[in-house]
Design a protein that fits this description.
With 341 residues, the chain is of the alpha+beta class. It is built from 12 helices and 9 strands. The protein has helices spanning 11-21, 30-42, 45-58, 77-86, 108-122, 176-192, 203-220, 226-239, 241-250, 286-299, 319-322, 331-340, and strands at 69-74, 99-105, 130-136, 153-161, 165-175, 253-256, 264-270, 275-281, 306-313. Strands 3-4-5-2-1-9-7-8-6 form a 9-stranded mixed sheet. It is globular and about 60 Å long.
Length: 341
């Protein structure tokens, strides 16, 4: 017989908190809603950690595995709120990407090799999670690349925890080229103060990035479209895209905590002041990190120029590689553009 799940907050409380934060309900205070959100996000930590260990083991089986990067993050409050606003039927307790892990591999074949390795792990007796859904935004028509040009393989797992009940985790697997494209869209979105990531904002910029994604896909498939490349070059010049992307990095100052150990990083980007603050926390300090995370989100909830996220990477050297958008650094994207075009 399964042990009864005992939770600090019920799913009903969690769902109400999501509605309160999205200003769609006023059943209780915003302060309580943030407290519930903090609890709900923290409940995913053990699940994320177990998948991270599994992924670290599996990438060793792929050629060039040492160059494969893994990161994890708890979904940002503004992203959660926007998702609920965009879909009024969305329930916070059922949101599938509150816990997110990202793997950046070398080439497209590695995406599917890693996926096969994960499927093998699912057959092990001690594997307790259920693969709920696999969405291929890379190949074919099921569904294939998003309309925006976004490409990645997404896998949703569900795990039933004795203490927290059913929890979901999303694993994204993408190539370095796909990663450079996606993070550069976020950088432009930050610059324009528009949610380009959600395909909302400057239509000319969105269309340009869509064409670049098509050129990247052709390149990764081993081909090249000269006419498309020339069209993209002309539009890049018209939008002054390269100079804009290069300009971000030059004006960004980085303030890092003096602490040298710890696997968790609290990132705070202030776009208007062009500053980036990094605070490092050890595994034992995870509760403090989550507390500080929610405090900063509350403090800057109405400031669209400030972005905050709590992430974890294998090595601090990988932080910039996995999250170049917070460094406003599009160097790798520009390098790929030069190579592809």
């Amino acid at each position: 017989m399964k042990k009864k799940v005992s939770k600090k907050y019920s799913n009903n409380d969690i769902n109400k908190a999501g509605l309160v934060l999205a200003a769609l309900n006023n059943d209780f205070s915003k302060e309580k809603a943030y407290d519930i959100l903090k609890y709900f996000r923290e409940s995913h930590e053990i699940l994320m950690y177990s998948f991270r260990i599994l992924l670290m083991r599996k990438i060793k089986k792929i050629k060039g595995g040492r160059n494969i990067s893994i990161s994890q993050r708890l979904k940002r409050a503004p992203s959660i709120i926007q998702k609920i606003k965009n879909n009024r039927k969305m329930k916070l307790s059922r949101m599938q990407d509150v816990a997110g892990l990202r793997v950046v591999v070398n080439k497209i074949s590695d995406v599917y090799l890693l996926n096969e390795e994960l499927k093998k792990a699912e057959n092990a007796p001690n594997f307790k999670s259920l693969r709920k859904r696999e969405t291929d935004y890379i190949q074919g028509n099921s569904p294939g690349p998003k309309e925006s040009g976004y490409r990645s393989l997404h896998i949703i797992y569900q795990n039933e925890n004795i203490r927290f009940g059913k929890l979901n985790a999303e694993i994204q697997i993408r190539t370095k080229l796909q990663h450079a494209w996606a993070t550069s869209v976020e950088i432009m979105g930050t610059y324009l103060n528009q949610p380009l990531k959600q395909s909302i904002g400057n239509l000319e910029i969105l269309e340009l990035f869509k064409k670049i994604s098509i050129a990247f896909k052709i390149y990764e498939d081993g081909g090249r479209d000269i006419n498309l490349s020339n069209e993209i070059k002309l539009e890049i010049d018209n939008q002054n895209l390269i100079n804009k992307l290069k300009g971000f990095k030059k004006v960004t100052e980085i303030y890092a905590s003096s602490k040298r150990t710890g696997k968790y990083f609290l990132i705070q980007l202030n776009f208007y002041k062009k500053t980036l603050s990094l605070s490092r926390f050890s595994e034992k300090e995870l509760e403090s990190a989550n507390k500080k995370y929610i405090e900063l989100e509350q403090k800057f909830k109405n400031d669209t120029g400030v972005e905050i996220v709590l992430v974890s990477v294998q090595d601090i050297k990988k932080l910039k590689e996995m999250y170049p958008n917070y460094y406003l650094d599009a160097e790798e994207f520009i390098s790929f553009l030069d190579k592809v075009l």
